[in-house]
């Protein structure tokens, strides 16, 4: 492929990937505004995030079958056009129900775009530039959700929340146009494969039941309620049957045999579980800044987007140096910075400046800059070219599902720890303290007690909210060291798409 055509193809695929990844996080800082405009609670407003994530997760493992049925180029372009259409309908949604439905459809059609961009780049880049192909996708899928909060915050502050979806229209059309113009004569082979309808049905049932449980678990008290218990049983049974069926089907919708490859399993797990931790923080952190610290959506986005500084600097360098360093050493440094940044986030207080709020994200960004490219390379190191689309689809399915679970569990942990800290703080400042003030100050103090008590309650709520977030980040940082140990079990050589 001529260099000019290669550059245009990369721009189109990168832009499409960026838009899909951006929509995972662009709505995070707009949740208070969306909730207010649509007259729902902030916890219900988070459905606009988790519905997209769950739908995207369901569609991701279908990439392998869809690409062989329709061709990789046609599938990417068609998915990009439908993604653009449903973005428009998201912005026009008059209520939460409509918005959630449009977000589900947007997530379904965009599912294949991310793994297809990876497969198409690896297919058309020359061997000596495959590391850069990995870096292009890794940088876009990492920077997009991290810069999403600042983009969403600026749009929400200066226009209104529907514009976070309207910006997809011209860019989505441009991405689809560039890919079609450069690759329409390079379509992959197609085959009339039977569709695994039973597998698709089981996939939809267990992922949907799990996502509804995660979304409503805090509200219905999880398994203590009949609904929560039913959803948990349905998700578990459907998952068990799904695994058994897929392992025995000749044309499975999700090729679970991919997990039998040691490097793929290690790469997928070592990427997905940290992503669950990071994505939970990506939702909780801007919410905490806005509800507890008085930040505007724009400034909450600025503090959150500090991730992207080192990612932009380090990811291209890592892509160029993939064949010169042992990836395990890079990942050791990566996990250290991820751990340090998460630990720093657990030390926040209500006097933190914008710099102190951004510092943990800046440190985590240094780790993320050395994180995704090596792990994706390890995961795909034993995959022949014809399995790249399926492998990348399952890889991102694992990561996306983990992110969705991380958000829901992170919000639950934050809320429960906040309640616990509020009760403990209230034990210190309670009726006995008020009674002593009354006895000491007489009627003058007694008259002022209602206002003082209201002020004390606000201070207690603020401190409890902060301590709950600190507990979440502190627990998260201790999940990372065991995953680093898993990385050291991977077997070289590590050449993405190199085959065996």
What does this protein look like?
The protein is about 75% helix and about 0% strand. By secondary structure, the chain is mainly alpha-helical. It has 2 domains: about 5-195 and about 255-415 and about 470-485, MFS general substrate transporter like domains (Growth Hormone, Chain: A, Up-down Bundle), CATH 1.20.1250; about 195-250. Helix 9 packs antiparallel against helix 15, helix 14 runs antiparallel to helix 22 and helix 16 runs parallel beside helix 18. The chain starts with a helix and ends in a 13-residue tail after the last helix.
The CATH class of the largest domain turns out to be: Mainly Alpha
- Into how many domains do the coordinates divide? 2
Count of discrete alpha- or pi-helical segments spanning 4 or more residues: 22
Mean pLDDT figure:
83
Count of extended strands: 0
CATH homologous superfamily assignment of the largest domain: MFS general substrate transporter like domains
Stated plainly, the CATH topology of the largest domain is called Growth Hormone, Chain: A
Order of helices and strands: HHHHHHHHHHHHHHHHHHHHHH
Which secondary-structure class do the elements indicate? mainly alpha
Portion in strands: under 5%
Q: Span from first to last CA?
A: 25 Å
Largest sheet: none
* Helix percent band: over 70%
> Which blocks of ≥5 consecutive residues have pLDDT under 50?
440-446
Shape: globular
Specify the CATH architecture of the largest domain: Up-down Bundle
Rg, nearest Å: 24 Å
């Amino acid at each position: 492929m001529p260099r000019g055509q290669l550059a245009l193809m990369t721009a189109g695929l990168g832009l499409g990937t960026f838009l899909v990844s951006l929509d995972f996080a662009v709505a995070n800082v707009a949740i208070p505004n969306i909730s207010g405009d649509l007259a729902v609670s902030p916890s219900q407003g988070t459905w606009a995030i988790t519905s997209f994530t769950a739908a995207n997760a369901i569609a991701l493992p279908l990439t392998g079958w869809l690409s062989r049925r329709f061709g990789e180029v046609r599938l990417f372009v068609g998915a990009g056009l439908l993604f653009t259409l449903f973005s428009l309908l998201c912005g026009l949604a008059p209520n939460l129900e409509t918005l959630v439905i449009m977000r589900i459809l947007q997530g379904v059609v965009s599912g294949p775009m991310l793994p297809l961009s990876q497969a198409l780049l690896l297919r058309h880049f020359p061997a000596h530039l495959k590391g850069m192909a990995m870096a292009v996708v890794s940088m876009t899928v990492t920077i997009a959700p991290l810069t999403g909060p600042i983009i969403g915050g600026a749009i929400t502050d200066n226009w209104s929340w529907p514009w976070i979806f309207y910006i997809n229209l011209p860019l989505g059309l441009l991405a689809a146009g560039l890919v079609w113009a450069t690759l329409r004569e390079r379509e992959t082979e197609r085959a009339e494969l039977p569709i695994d309808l039973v597998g698709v049905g089981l996939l939809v049932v267990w992922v949907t039941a799990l996502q509804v449980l995660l979304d409503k678990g805090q509200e219905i008290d999880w398994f203590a309620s009949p609904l929560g218990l039913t959803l948990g049983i349905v998700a578990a049974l459907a998952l068990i049957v799904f695994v058994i069926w897929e392992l025995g089907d000749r044309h499975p919708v999700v090729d679970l045999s991919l997990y039998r490859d040691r490097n793929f399993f290690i790469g997928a797990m070592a990427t997905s579980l940290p992503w669950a931790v990071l994505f939970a923080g990506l939702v909780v952190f801007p919410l905490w800044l806005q509800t507890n610290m008085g930040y505007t959506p724009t400034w909450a986005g600025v503090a959150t987007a500090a991730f992207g500084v080192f990612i932009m600097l380090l990811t291209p360098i890592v892509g160029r140096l993939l064949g010169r360093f042992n990836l395990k050493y890079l990942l050791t440094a990566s996990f250290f910075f991820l751990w340090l940044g998460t630990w720093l986030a657990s030390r926040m207080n209500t006097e933190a400046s914008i710099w102190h709020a951004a510092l943990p994200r800046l440190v985590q960004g240094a780790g993320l800059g050395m994180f995704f490219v090596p792990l994706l390379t390890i995961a795909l190191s034993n995959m022949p070219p014809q399995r790249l689309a399926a492998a990348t689809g399952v890889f991102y399915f694992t990561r996306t599902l983990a992110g969705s679970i991380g958000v829901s569990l992170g919000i639950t942990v934050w809320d429960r720890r906040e309640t616990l800290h509020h009760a403990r703080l209230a034990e210190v400042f309670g009726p006995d303290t008020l009674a002593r003030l009354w006895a000491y100050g007489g009627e003058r103090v007694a008259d002022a007690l209602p206002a003082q008590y209201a002020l004390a309650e606000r201070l207690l709520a603020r401190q409890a909210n902060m301590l709950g977030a600190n507990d979440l980040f502190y627990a998260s940082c201790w999940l990372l060291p065991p995953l680093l140990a898993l990385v050291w079990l991977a077997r070289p050589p590590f050449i993405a798409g190199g085959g065996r």
